[in-house]
């Protein structure tokens, strides 16, 4: 029996065109100000769309968290926002806050800073 070790994931394949394709799939068109934000585990960017609305998009590192863990984080953040706490809750598209493109899970947030 032969076993293989799965490759270690890196974000080296993650290019700006993949980010733009991911956003446009959900009707968000990046216009300007694409800025990478500090994040140890994920890829997080702030940008402005064609309507001058500022967003933060967070691409989750594969194999670090599963969907259930990310959804739990989103649910908690939405609950806090509904209770009036000043948090940036993920935005929903077709009723879902956890989006995907090319195997990457990501979420879009309003930029509040």
UniProtKB/TrEMBL annotation:
Annotated organism of origin: Morganella morganii (Proteus morganii)
Any one annotated GO CC term: cytoplasm
Record-linked InterPro entries: Aminoglycoside_PTrfase, Kinase-like_dom_sf, SrkA/RdoA
Highest taxon in the source lineage: Bacteria
Positions of the Aminoglycoside phosphotransferase domain: 35-112
Any one GO molecular function term: protein serine/threonine kinase activity
Keywords annotated in UniProt: ATP-binding, Cytoplasm, Kinase, Magnesium, Metal-binding, Nucleotide-binding, Phosphoprotein, Serine/threonine-protein kinase, Stress response, Transferase
Name this protein carries in UniProt: Serine/threonine protein kinase
């Amino acid at each position: 029996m032969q076993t293989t070790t799965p490759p270690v994931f890196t974000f080296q394949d993650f290019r700006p065109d993949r980010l733009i394709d991911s956003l446009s799939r959900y009707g968000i068109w990046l216009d300007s100000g694409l800025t990478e934000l500090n994040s140890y585990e994920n890829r997080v960017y702030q940008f402005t769309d064609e309507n001058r609305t500022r967003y933060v998009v967070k691409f989750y590192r594969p194999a670090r968290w599963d969907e259930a863990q990310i959804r739990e984080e989103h649910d908690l953040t939405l609950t806090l926002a509904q209770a009036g706490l000043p948090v940036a809750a993920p935005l929903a598209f077709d009723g879902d806050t956890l989006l995907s493109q090319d195997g990457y899970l990501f979420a879009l947030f309003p930029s509040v800073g």
